[in-house]
Amino acid sequence: MEQFPIFLNLDNFPCAVVGGGDVAYRKACALLKAKAQLTIIAPDICQELAELIAEQNIEHIAQVWTPNLIADMRLVVAATDDETVNTKIYEYCEAHKILINAVDQPAICRYTTPSIVDRSPILIAISSAGMSPVLARRIRAMIETALPQSIAEIAEYAGSIRGKIKQAFGSINERRLFWEKFFTSSIMSRFKQMSEQDKTQLVDTLINGAETQGEVWLVGAGPGDPELLTIKALQKMQLADVVVYDRLVSSSILDLARKDADFICVGKQKSLHLKQQEEINDLLVRLAKEGKKVCRLKGGDPFIFGRGGEELETLVEAHIPFQVIPAVTAAAGCASYAGIPLTHRDYARKVVFVTGQNSIAGEEPDWASLVQPYQTLVIYMGVGKSAQVQQGLIAAGMQSDMPVAIVENGTTTQQKVHTCLLSELTDLHQSKKIGSPALLIIGHVVKLQQQLNWFDTQDENSTPAFKNYLIK
Ligand code: SAH
Q1: What total number of domains does the chain contain?
Q2: Is 338 within any annotated ligand binding site?
């Protein structure tokens, strides 16, 4: 360990910032946030610093730095733009046992300030020991996204019931067990929605050792690229006791879920679709009734051809609390990564999402209603029915040279984009082995694909998700 981390209490702690520019201003703000007893030493100060000094009634010594000005300080920030001056300040502070930080001069710092995630009272500090402040900031962003928004309020609430918990449990072990249950309960995801009464009820249930009620989160996992997950989806995945996932959800996405959660694959087989859906609905209810937090993870968006509505109906009937987390749907993800804008002022003012899979076997889509000018048609679950799509649309009046794209494994590193004319769709489907899942995009916008596919398709170094394989 290069440095020793501590959190410093700045109450009644005389601190000085030497310097009057932007950097000095930022350092002063940070110190004031922690209630430092602050003095600014600088003959000239910037506008922002002047306003801060006036607003917060801070002592300002409008002089060039001299050692006597910091003799009584316990912490000093050297923020002048003169490295020799900063070095002199450092030497003085070291000789007089004053904590010193010289901005951007790690060699003359007794302490450094970390990158922080501030959800006070929770405070997370990240340091790279001066090796890479930018990396430390990236890590901070990652932590920010992983923390539930209400973490500060949850911490405060936990503080407010400490006395009660101490009374309820005599031993440290019992108390620790309580807190473990508390911080994995629904409080973490529902704090904002809960009334004071709900919270007290939950705490009492945990004290009595009874099972708390579970809940189900219907979470959209997006089309494939894990980086397209929403922050909320990621948070739910990391809080879940059980992850119930579809075949469409890739292992790289599942890897981001809580490691010790149970994972249940409910990949559907086409022939057993209906029966299996009922079984899934029952499974969700059973798990929630056992008190589990269930993340029902679905490919794309849960409400777009995801049967999310049906699962919710069962949950409502069983009085199970639920939340729905929307996501990037396959049409949006595949189109973007393939370089096909779904709408365009000149080519498409409407976009229609349809399914090629009808709930009534043998029933054909209403092709005529799908043939419209200035429209892009996106067909989910339709590639296997390429022959019917081609025949149906042409018979309903769509021009046979309408451009079509099949996007296979869209947004993943295995993405492939095949383009052809509508009249060639059946042949293309028969001649190429098209992997699953795949999406059909039909419309003039497909013409823009080559134009907007700005990555060199042969270049191994181009961004993988954009690496298209044009097969025409
Ligand atoms: N709820 C999902 C759709 C589920 S239906 C969503 O919003 O995206 C399943 C169909 O979605 C597949 O048959 C395929 O047509 C399409 N699909 C989903 N992910 C895809 C991907 N990564 N690439 C291409 N098509 C995809």
Answers
A1: 4
A2: no
CATH of the domain at 175: 1.10.8.210
78 CA → ligand 1 middle, Å = 57
324 Cβ below 6 A of ligand 1: no
What is the C-alpha to C-alpha distance for residues 171 and 169, in angstroms, rounded to an integer? Answer: 6
Quote the domain boundaries for residue 202: 151-207
CA angle 339, 345, 349 (to 5 degrees): 90
- The question of whether 181 is a catalytic residue gets the answer no
Residue 466 has pLDDT above 80, yes or no: no
Average pLDDT, the chain: 90
Ligand 1 centroid to residue 5 C-alpha, Å:
47
Specify whether 403 is located in the same domain as 363: yes
Most confident by average pLDDT, 20-24, 102-106, 185-189, 276-280: 20-24
Identify which has the larger pLDDT, 360 or 347.
Answer: 347
Q: What is the largest CA-CA distance in the chain?
A: 92
Residues 164 and 58 in one domain: no
**Residues 6 or more apart from 219 whose CB is under 8 A from it?**
233, 236, 237, 295, 296, 297, 298, 302, 325, 327
Percent of the chain with pLDDT over 70: 93
**Which DSSP helix (H) or strand (E) runs through 253?**
helix 251-254
Q: What is the pLDDT of residues 283-333, one digit of tens each?
A: 999 999 998 999 999 999 999 998 888 899 999 999 999 999 999 999 999
User: Has residue 144 been placed in a domain?
Assistant: no
Q: Is the CB of 337 under 6 A from ligand 1?
A: no
Q: Tell me whether residue 141 is in a domain.
A: no
Q: Can you tell me whether residue 231 is helix, strand or coil?
A: helix
Which of 225, 232, 236, 246 is the catalytic position?
246
- Given this model, what pLDDT does residue 452 score? 67
- Among the listed residues 268, 289, 432, 447, the single catalytic one is 268
Is the CB–ligand 1 distance for residue 248 below 6 Å?
yes
For residue 126, tell me if it sits in a domain: no
Domain boundary among 328, 345, 378: 328
Which ligand 1 atom is the nearest neighbour of the CA of 328?
Answer: 7
Structure tokens at 193: 């929605």
Find out whether 261 and 242 touch, Cβ atoms under 8 Å: yes
Q: Are residues 197 and 247 in the same domain?
A: no
Q: What Å distances lie between residue 301 and 20, 142, 165, 311, 324, CA to CA?
A: 52, 23, 41, 14, 10
The model's pTM is: 0.72
**Is 27 considered catalytic here?**
no
